[in-house]
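User: Hello, can you help with two protein structures?

Assistant: Certainly.
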Amino acid sequence: MENVQAIKQRFGIIGNDIKLNRAIEKAIQVAPTDISVLVTGESGVGKEAIPKIIHSLSHRKHGKFIAVNCGAIPEGTIDSELFGHEKGSFTGATQTRSGYFEEANGGTIFLDEVGELPLTTQVRLLRVLENGEFIKVGSSKVQKTDVRIVAATNVNMFEAIEKEKFREDLYYRLSTVEIHLPPLRERRDDIHLLFRKFAADFAQKYKMPTIRLDDEAVVLLNKYRWSGNVRQLRNIAEQISVLEQERSVSADTLRSYLPDYKPNLPAVINHSKSDTDFSNEREILYKVLFDMKSDLNDLKKLTLELMETGDNEQVQEDNKTLINKIYGSDSESEESYDSAEDIDEALEVLPLNSPPALPNHNSLEDKYHFAEDIEEEETLSLQEKELELIKKALERNNGKRKAAAKELGISERTLYRKIKQYDL
């Protein structure tokens, strides 16, 4: 049995990808048997090489090898092409004709694009796979054939079965052994190697110097998605070999030959909804509530620390950032405190000359009892906050309702209704 490297050299297969090597190994292993093989993979990956390997290593290697593209034969004549027909069986049948299965008797038949077969033809093919029997079109005589069937498809067979475009029993007959060839984008290390091979072949064919890629062009070559796989890469190499005067190809030159070039990188999606951080009335209310909750929790913390320590100056020193957050700036008027004196003035709202008497309890729940009382005294109105937001938006936009509504993230009609409600 020949090894993988020898098979590659014999059939001109380029690449060292582990998935490619595994596919060739499976082909070598199943070749001596007569079991059916299904080769899967995207269009252009080189599926036609696997049936040739299987046939050449089998005991049928001296028989015929017939390759049939099932997708290229019209539905009305495919039965005649595969199984033959009798004279006069249909219009134009002026003589008896042998089909591919009869001609390939004792050899191998390769059914490329087998997923494109009509359902009626699939029934006939299933019978050939089961017992080697077929009937010519227009005949009633059953004939026998001894062929090895290797099929290939780029169709997702399970989806085709679910859509009832392919028979499930035929799929399992064909795929006794399934060999999958990876797409070129999964064989990154082989891309430049294949390009160099194609470039050398075309240089010899057209009698011209071999083209070479610079470093940036090689990087671009490897990043490209290659949806057409090896076939597309070969075509690009041929185009550049024929059309380019310069034998050294830059990244810009290569990019001009790559259709719809897009790097194989994740796309960045912009999720921003509008120019402001809220887009409707509900979000305005949520924002106000979250801000209130945050400020209230900060006040709880500061008040509790004052009650526990009783040291007003030390608390001010330790909580400058927190105090400045609560009292130090007004987001609507864009004013801030620039000095410690300003902070002291702001703190006049919390005059605590001596710590209040705390209940003689040790539980944490009792300590927070007074902080919860503060929450009841804080009665900020959502309507007042909404009114302030609307006033500020109108002021910033010189009374223009359309611009103010856009800033608030509400419709102009809704803003007009709010203005009438608050009598602005």
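That covers the first. Now for the second protein you mentioned:
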Amino acid sequence: MSRHYTGLAGYAHDQPPKAGVLLVNLGTPEAPTAAAVRPYLAEFLGDPRVIEYPRWLWWLILHGIILRVRPRRSAHAYARIWTEHGSPLRTGSEGLARALQSELAGRLPGPVRVDLAMRYGRPSVRERIEAMQREGVRRLLVLPLYPQYSATSTGSVIDAVADTLKTLRWPPELRLVNDYHDQPAHIDALARSIEAFWAERGRGDKLLLSFHGIPERYLRAGDPYFCQCHATARLLREKLGLGEDAVLVSFQSRVGRERWLHPYTDQTVKQLAKDGVKKLDVISPGFAVDCLETLEEIAMQNREFFLAGGGTDLRYIPALNDSPDQVKAMADLVQRHAQGWPEFAPDYDAKAALLRQNAAKGRADAMGGRTG
């Protein structure tokens, strides 16, 4: 069977090569409606990285039960957080990409293009990699917006990137960031966001770190996510100078009857209220940008659970989003992973690069080649 490889119809010798940074987040439906949520959920929950069941069995469950019921329920949840600008995850991720582009432009001598893709929905990983190729990106760093690695998240992004590169006639040089859960600048950014929140609103009785859950059997199969979540929690607690009894870790967003990572966030919140905790602070360090799981599940649902159990206030501490601390930490991360690329070298000479490009164009013209 023949394979078709996509590429540029004629190499543009007058187009200077550049480096690219592709941020990838989970994704979002296009609208808070059941009709828009259904295809998004079908793509997300149809990913074998996310649900490791026999495909035939999961197809029957997904299409026979879940996609008949869950889109309407999820659409209601999305509608609670939707803004006039659209999905908070989309707009927040776009803001982060713009801020990172600006930060890198101020730091680096060479041309670096920052772009954004969604693992599920649009803009897709394939769309953005192909677009970056057309813009002259020959060196690509992929940065999934998941601080902790899991096969269900970062692993799936790697799959999508690999599937795209397999179709390209001339794939770019590739580097990937697996995780940044223990990077000092990232931990510092989280700590400063908590301290700023406390300086403005006072400190709660307890600090709960709520991470997204995964099935417990994935941990037993070798997924490092659980350990990296606890490493982030330990480093953050130490940075804040808090004792072990002041900081708790839990896992949210479980689906189905299978046992997921423990303890569960909703059960923890209810138990804390029952135990007499009145003011609870919650942050979700596994999310780079605020989204459904933070704004609706934590700040709304779990706040209602806490108040119903006797607590007086659950205060959600926002994700880092496009804060200067997160942007600087990510720029540091990008520079570290892109070492050795010309665009990141301190001695990059833009004028010399342009002269080389013009010389290459001249040679191509002399040989009758296409230059653009």
